[in-house]
Every structure is written in C-alpha cells, then in structure tokens.
Amino acid sequence: MNPNLSPPGYSFKAAEQYHNNDKRSGNDKTNRKAQTRERVAWTSTRNLMTDDPTVATRIMIATALDAARLKQAAGVKNTGQKSAKHVQTLSLAWHPDEKVTRAEMEQAADEVIGLLELTEHQITIYCHSDTDHPHVHLVANRVHPWTGRMAGLSNGKRKLDKWAHGYEQRRGRIVSPNRDEKYRRQEEAKLRHPEPKKRRAWAEQKRKAVAEKFPVTPKSERWERLTAAEAKRATLRDAKARAVDLAVKVPLDRQEAAEWLLRPLMGYQETSGTGQKVAMAVLAHDPDLNVQELLKEHLPGLRNPADPREVLKLLGADHKAVMRIKNEIMDDPELDAAFDSLPGALRGVANELRETPWMKIERTLEKWVGPGVARTIRRAVDFLASLFRDEKIAKLEAPDEPPATRGSGQSKTPAPPGKHDPGDGYSP
Q1: What residue ranges in 32-134 does DSSP mark as E strands?
Q2: For residue 40, what are the β-bridge partners?
Q3: Fewest CB within 10 A of the end CB: N or C in the chain?
Q4: The overall pTM is greater than 0.90
Q5: Measuring CA to CA, how many Å separate 313 from each of 274, 277, 278, 291, 416?
C-alpha cells in the first residue's frame, strides 16, 4: 500500500476535470481538456446528495464559498487567517500483484477518511484503471459542511504511513520492506528504552558514536555532499538575513501597486475596451481560470503572461488580439461569468481607492465583489507589489550614477519605480 497526500489546492473544477476524465494527449492546444472517461472504472461519494461527481463538485464549490455563513449559523467565530486552499486530494495505490475488489478499495478509503478526521466532510472517490497497480483518488472538501471550519490534516503523511504499515500487516503481505524495517527498529528501540527521554538520549549517543568511529574527511565519499549541504545552509542563512534587512528598508507597497493596476479606470475617460483589457490582465493571475494559455496563444511577443504590466501594454497595442481572446472567453461559461463581473468590480475598487488606503479596502473587498473576484484582485495586487519591491531593491543596490550634465537630454529626477511612463501605451 502506497498512500500519497498532496498539498492542498484551490480548484475543485480542475480536480474533477483531471480525475473524472482521461489525460489529455500531447501538447495539442485545441484539445486542452480531454472529455473521454475510459480510465475511470467507478466513482463514489461521501456526505453528498448525489453519486454524479460533476454535480458533487458543484456542491463542494458552493459549500466552500458559503463557509462564512456556515460559521455564523453554527456560532463559530469567523476570525484568524483565511485560506482559499479548500481542495485536498490523496491517492491510495496497491501493489501490481495484489488483487483488490471495489469493496476493499472503498473500505480502505473509509479507513483513511476516518484517520484524517474527514468523516463528516464532502468527498468524491475515483478509481482509475490506466495503470498496472490498482489505485483510487480521493478529492475532499476541507470546509466542514455544517460548521464552515477548515480541516487541518496535521501530521497527515505520518499518520498515513503508519496506517499503511498496519494495513499490510493485516492483509498478511508486506510489499514495502523498507517501511516494515523502519517500524521494526522503532519497536525494538521502545522495548529497549520504554521512557521517551531515555530513548532519545540513547539515539543521540549512538549517532555521536558512529560519527566518532567513521569521521568525515576530505577523502570520504560523503565529504562533497556534506560540504555542499553546509554551503547551501550558509547561503540560505545569508539570504534570510538579507531579506529581513531589505524588508525593513523596502516594504511591500500595495497602495502603489493597486493604484498602478487600476489607473486606467481612475480619473480617465473610460471606454468599454479599457475595462476589458484590465480584466484580462487581472484574470491572468487566477490559477483557477485558464487565461494565461489564451494570452500566450493570441498575444505575439508576450514573455511573461503573469505580469499585468506587459499584458496591458500588448493588449493596448493589439485590438484584434483583445477580440480573439474575448471570443474564446465567451465560449467558457466560468470564464465568461468572471470576465463580465470583473470590470465593474474593478471600477468600484478604483473609485474607493482615490480616498481610501489599500489595506482598508483589502478588509472589505470580499463584501463588495464576492470571494472569487476579491481573491483574484488581491493576488494581482500582491504580485505587482512584489515586483515594485524588487525594482526598489534593485535601485537601492545599484551603484550611484554620476549626475547628468546639462544638455544631455536626461532628466535630473527619475520617475519613481512602478509609476506610469506616459509613452508605455497604458493610458487611454
């Protein structure tokens, strides 16, 4: 048994598209999403009112978006740091020689669900038949459907590893000998030293004895590896110290970033095309939406689709590209809904930004425009703020240039980093 717990993710729709369909073939851009389901042997759900995984995905999305109301109804305080990583995926894989039935797979999945304390959470289970080893995938909603609380999954990998060892022992067949040897040594150590403090002291003494008996010298095979590891640790320590020092000197300027991003909508004669271009630049930061591929496909010369400055510049210079991208967005219901709602939301934020600091807007953004649009705007602003910070750091660390002589045509006072250049094509 080989359990694999993935890091939490953002998109239920992407998880359902991957697990409930076949993998897409090659790099064919015209077939970005495979629609066949030949590798899906069967599906199952937990705590959902349907067995259809597509409908179940929509229910989980609605539950995750309704977390604040669920907390309020359950009397749970809606405090602390919020996270948009509502999707938790994991897989259970058996050895290719093992023959397991669907009932055995579902029983193992239920044991894992209970082990991770997800018994009351919404879960879809997919069994795939495209590999030699039998395996199932679980997609869980971390948001509790009654209380709105987010599941923590503390020490999840360690719990799964220990459960998998016990699972193989119960089945009477050890297919992971290295893991079995590890737990056997742990049990022997516990019998030899029942008290945890004495066991840790004994292990430390053993490590010191081995190090003294087999010292690492320049002629040892481990010398280069240990030297490289120490150099890497030193580099990380220096980088951390430098980052702390620079963070004090050059803080993230979210106000400047937000003003730059929304400047086409602030104080200018607005046109319908301006809002559309800004919306495309902002949506490029949303990992739940497939906008970056559209930008790469239709904007020639685009180097970094995640940089809204470059996207806005090229969109402003190519009206046909804007229309091509807009037509493809209209073919996708999810993209079309986000694209229609974002320009108006951005215009409202831009109007408030004239008199209100960005940090205050950030606290109430979700109430104005909804959690999805608010999350997209916040990602774009944070990305821009990091770019401005890097530019300021580069300027701070650049060698001093001699002052420009009269008549050289250079400005004596350069424009502050991150501000508009009148000739960059952004202003309407």
Answers
A1: 40-46, 87-93, 123-128
A2: 128
A3: C
A4: no
A5: 12, 9, 10, 17, 19
Helices 333-353 and 371-397: crossing angle in degrees, nearest 10, is 60
- Tell me the residue type at 328: E
Amino acid (1-letter code) at residue 211 = A
Residue 398, CA atoms < 13 Å, CB-side half-sphere: 9
Given a contact cutoff of 8 angstroms between Cβ atoms, the answer to whether 165 and 179 are in contact is yes
Per-residue pLDDT reduced to its tens digit, 36-93 = 889 999 999 999 989 999 999 999 999 998 888 899 888 888 777 678 889 999 999 9
Measuring CA to CA, which residue among 240, 246, 255, 244 is closest to residue 392?
246
Mind spelling out the 3-state secondary structure of 399-423?
CCCCCCCCCCCCCCCCCCCCCCCCC
- C-alpha torsion 101→144→83→287, nearest 10: 50
Half-sphere exposure of residue 197: CA atoms within 13 angstroms, side-chain side: 0
Q: Which residues pair with 378 in a beta bridge?
A: none
Q: Specify the residue for token string 């006072």.
A: 413
Residues 6+ apart with CB under 8 A from 421: 415
Distance (Å, whole) CA 4 – CA 428 = 51
What is the rounded CA–CA span in Å between residue 378 and residue 387? 14
Task: Give per-residue pLDDT as tens, 332-364.
Answer: 777 777 777 777 777 777 777 766 777 677 667
Distance CA 93, CA 136 (A): 7
Q: What is the DSSP letter of 20?
A: T
Amino acid (one-letter) located at 341: S
Decide if 34 contacts 21 (C-beta within 8 A): yes
User: What 3-state DSSP class applies to 12?
Assistant: helix
d(CA 377, CA 210): 55
Contact criterion met (CB below 8 Å) for 22 and 34: yes
> Other C-beta atoms within 10 Å of 427: how many?
13
Q: How many CA atoms lie within 13 A of 253 on its CB side?
A: 18
Q: What is the pLDDT of residues 384-417, one digit of tens each?
A: 788 787 777 777 766 665 555 544 444 443 343 3
Q: Cα–Cα distances in Å, from 97 out to 18, 136, 394? A: 26, 16, 58
Rounded Cα distance, 393 and 397, in Å: 6
Distances in whole angstroms, Cα of residue 60 to Cα of each of 44, 82, 168, 257, 376: 14, 18, 33, 34, 20
Half-sphere exposure of 53 (CA within 13 A, CB side): 24
List the end-to-end C-alpha distance of the chain, in Å, as a whole number: 60
